[in-house]
Every structure is written in C-alpha cells, then in structure tokens.
Design a protein that fits this description.
With 67 residues, the chain is mainly alpha-helical. It has one domain: Arc Repressor Mutant, subunit A (Orthogonal Bundle), CATH 1.10.10.10. It is 49% helix and 6% strand. It is built from four helices and two strands, in the order αββααα. Strands 1-2 form a two-stranded antiparallel sheet. Helix 2 crosses helix 4. It is globular and about 30 Å long. The two termini are 19 Å apart.
C-alpha cells in the first residue's frame, strides 16, 4: 500500500456519524472542520493541541482528501 492510500485510510465514513460526512479515524472530528481551521490560518500545532487525539498524519490525510 502506498503512502497516499495509507493516509486516506485515516478518513472514515459512517452514515450514522456526523451526518455521513468524512471524519478522522472514526472520531467525531470532521474533515471539513480541520480544513476550515487550516483555511483560517490556524497553525497545525494549535490544531493538534486543541484535539489531542489527532496526529499530524490525520491533517495530511484531510489535505490529501481535499486535493
């Protein structure tokens, strides 16, 4: 499995969770929320501090999905 696929495997979809929107590793942290914070110039370190269950690779996965 290549690195891109490994990152994208961090994104999960569950119809019963967050209205079926893509989330990170089955947590109730939506990809759109992370992307919005990045668009508002929130530093990755601040996002990781605010969401201690997140890993840097989760943020990379969000960006890859958006691309």
């Amino acid at each position: 499995m290549n690195q891109q696929q490994e990152l994208l495997n961090r994104i999960t979809y569950k119809p019963q969770q967050c209205g079926g929107k893509p989330c990170i590793r089955c947590m109730r942290i939506r990809v759109t929320d992370i992307l919005e914070m990045l668009a508002l110039n929130v530093e990755v370190s601040e996002i990781l501090a605010d969401f201690p269950d997140l890993e840097a690779e989760d943020i990379q996965a969000c960006l890859l999905l958006a691309a």
